[in-house]
Amino acid sequence: MTTVIHIRDTPPGYKDNPDYVYIGRPSKWGNPYPVSMGRTACIDLFREHVTSDPRLLEALSELRGKTLVCYCKPQACHGDVLAELADAKQKEDEDEAEESESEGV
């Protein structure tokens, strides 16, 4: 399960730990929409941004099962969207693999 935590809750040396992924700006996972437009609108636009970009959708597998690190938590965060999408992508990939196995492909 992919989780999201505030950067202050990271252990020392988290940047060297592959189980932690920084998702703030300027990373590719950073939300390009400012929270000043309203947290809900900002997160909704981020969801559209990710789901309309095939490269980001494909890269979601990088986040599966990781701890995503941002400055927003415990408030609603674009990381929640990334965690949800990464976990859904994992489920989708597992279902496809099962289907292929049952078809003998």
From TrEMBL:
Residues 14-84 form the DUF4326 domain. Pfam families: DUF4326. This is DUF4326 domain-containing protein. It comes from marine sediment metagenome.
